[in-house]
Amino acid sequence: MSNSRTLPVPDGLDGMRVDSGLAKLLGLSRSNAAALAESGEVLVDGAPAGKSDRLTAGALLDVTLPEPAQPVPVAAVPVAGLRVLHADEHIIVVDKPVGVAVHPSPGWTGPTVIGGLAAAGYRISTSGAAERQGVVHRLDAATTGVMVVATSEHAYTVLKRAFAQRTVDKLYHALVQGHPDPSVGTIDAPIDRHPRHDYRFAVVATGKPSVTHYEVAEAFRAASLLDVHLETGRTHQIRVHFSAMRHPCVGDLTYGADPVLAKRLDMSRQWLHARTLRFAHPEDGRTVEYTSEYPDDLAHALEVLRAES
Q1: Residue 296 catalytic?
Q2: Do residues 170 and 229 make contact, with C-beta atoms less than 8 angstroms apart?
Q3: Hey, where are the domains in the chain?
Q4: 2-66: what fold?
Q5: Which pTM was predicted?
Q6: Does this chain's domain 72-165 share its CATH topology with 171-274+298-308?
Q7: Domain 72-165 carries which CATH code?
Q8: Most buried by CB count within 10 Å: which residue of 4, 11, 75, 302?
Q9: Where's the Pseudouridine synthase RsuA/RluA-like domain (predicted)?
Q10: One of 140, 188, 192, 258 is an active-site residue; which one?
């Protein structure tokens, strides 16, 4: 099944490649937009358009889109290392281990927070898409730490609004290469998908506003431990922002980290941890705060650095 969209090319996309312009216009990934063009599903003024053709403002764009994929079912499978820090009738706060996605998605075959909670007998809010019901924010699969899931419809609504309005205090700890200068600062740089690598994100002039506040908490010879407060919550935000500053998270080979340093510290993923989450409880508005301790691999890396300093 498929559906068709017909719309004029806006002035802002004039001169842009078909795949890039289509991705921006319809919210697709660039690779998916290119695949549509290559399969003949994109017409410009009635003529098939190649992925690298250029768009002209005012031209009529016809795109045949596939029907959305069916939701990925939630498998109730126990997750080793997933700890519940707090649970009540409105929220569940968990300490997420490494290698665990928040919810099912196409192509992911590993464990999920939602599946682990279902296996443990917890009821999750039914708000949200079927595979991510109750999810009000996310952590990367390779990022550890504290996160909250809604277990009531009221909590889902309140928490989604709180995250959207940036009233949730999200403190991360990040170990980055080198020594950021200044030692206390703010990175205000828009983020969008990488123009060439679809699985990555990057600082892009036309991206979404993204703001990261940081302060050096401890300095070592080769790296710095940072307190990081997110004002916004873009995908890979901390990783992208510090990579753009040439201080990538230690172990984050996707975003330019030094593989030699990563090996020396036994890091097989980015050193990034959701340390503390502070928010107004959706039931009565009281301030609650939950903290996650470092997992063994992150703690070991710090021990090695302290021993060398």
Answers
A1: no
A2: yes
A3: 2-66, 72-165, 171-274+298-308
A4: 3.10.290
A5: 0.77
A6: yes
A7: 3.30.2350.10
A8: 302
A9: 90-244
A10: 140
On whether the CB atoms of residues 51 and 63 are closer than 8 A, the answer is no
Question: Which amino acid is it at 265?
Answer: L
Return per-residue pLDDT of the chain as tens, 309 residues: 457 788 889 888 899 999 988 888 888 888 888 888 888 889 998 888 999 999 998 899 889 887 665 566 778 899 999 999 999 999 999 999 999 999 888 778 899 999 999 999 998 877 666 656 789 999 999 999 999 999 999 999 999 999 989 999 999 999 999 999 999 999 999 998 887 776 789 999 888 999 999 999 999 999 999 999 999 989 999 999 999 999 999 999 999 999 999 999 999 999 999 999 999 999 999 999 999 999 999 999 999 999 987
